[in-house]
Amino acid sequence: QVQLVESGGGLVKPGGSLRLSCAASGFTFSDYYMSWIRQAPGKGLEWVSYISSSGSTIYYADSVKGRFTISRDNAKNSLYLQMNSLRAEDTAVYYCARDLYADYCSGGSCYSRFDPWGQGTLVTVSS
Amino acid sequence: DIQMTQSPSSLSASVGDRVTITCRASQSISSYLNWYQQKPGKAPKLLIYAASSLQSGVPSRFSGSGSGTDFTLTISSLQPEDFATYYCQQSYSPFTFGPGTKVDIK
């Protein structure tokens, strides 16, 4: 079945770096756009970054622009998030999610939606 | 950036109740609106996409409506497994989530 499994979370000091990974299975990974979304403890969801199927188009939330880098390896069915210059406010559960962008199009427009999501990996930034 | 608001922020309801949650965008987003359900300690689950399309496998008691700036998620008859937090999300440019609506037991 379709599955996403994140890894790489942990405790890191402010200013430090961490690389998250997301292993995909059960679908043709190279056909799909992917995103990272995070959720601070007790808070709502915040979209972090998006990458197109080929990796040619990338977007970031303003809150992480210049510090985080999204990438993918379609040969390894894997998505990555390199996080540098980490701050306390980056503390969150980080989810990867598949974007079903091209699965539903109507009137010349295609509609992004995230499904499924991984189980999440916790990143804690603290001294 | 497009901002999303939801109302109410929380509500208490009983099994069998009809529940309506509203989501508003700061500018027109056409029908680029999705709804997710999240239970404690779990990843969000897609319920509704493109404002009114039911995701495969989601019970028909869930429905969505709206376009432009105002959207609604309706649960026609609340079931015990529906107590959760619900988020709207715009996918017009690029992505923003609403703050969430927590549905708990009255």
β-strand number of chain B: 11
Spans where pLDDT lies below 50 across 5 or more residues of chain B: none
Q: How many helices of chain A?
A: 0
Radius of gyration of chain B: 13 Å
Write structural notes for this entry.
The complex is a heterodimer of chains A (127) and B (106). Helices cover 0% and strands 52% of the residues of chain A. Chain A is mainly beta. The radius of gyration of chain A is 14 Å and the shape is globular. The model of chain A has no long low-confidence stretch (mean pLDDT 96). Chain B has 106 residues and is mostly beta strands. Chain B has strands spanning 4-7, 10-13, 19-25, 33-38, 45-49, 53-54, 62-67, 70-75, 85-90, 96-97, 101-105. In chain B, strands 2, 4, 5, 6, 9, 10 and 11 form a seven-stranded mixed sheet that branches. A four-stranded antiparallel sheet of chain B has the order 1-3-8-7, with no helix packed on it. The N and C termini of chain B lie far apart (36 Å). Chain A binds chain B through residues 35, 37, 44-47, 50, 59, 62, 95, 100, 104, 106, 109, 111-120, and chain B through 1, 30-32, 34, 36, 38, 43-46, 49-50, 53, 55, 87, 89, 91, 94-100.
In a few lines, what is going on in this structure?
The complex is a heterodimer of chains A (127) and B (106). Chain A has no helices and 13 strands. Chain A has strands at 3-7, 10-12, 18-25, 33-39, 45-51, 58-60, 68-73, 78-83, 92-99, 105-106, 109-110, 114-117, 121-125.
Write the layout of secondary structure elements.
The complex is a heterodimer of chains A (127) and B (106).
Chain A: E1 3-7, E2 10-12, E3 18-25, E4 33-39, E5 45-51, E6 58-60, E7 68-73, E8 78-83, E9 92-99, E10 105-106, E11 109-110, E12 114-117, E13 121-125
Parallel strand pairs in A: 2-13
Antiparallel strand pairs in A: 1-3, 3-8, 4-5, 4-9, 5-6, 7-8, 9-12, 9-13, 10-11
Chain B: E1 4-7, E2 10-13, E3 19-25, E4 33-38, E5 45-49, E6 53-54, E7 62-67, E8 70-75, E9 85-90, E10 96-97, E11 101-105
Parallel strand pairs in B: 2-11
Antiparallel strand pairs in B: 1-3, 3-8, 4-5, 4-9, 5-6, 7-8, 9-10, 9-11
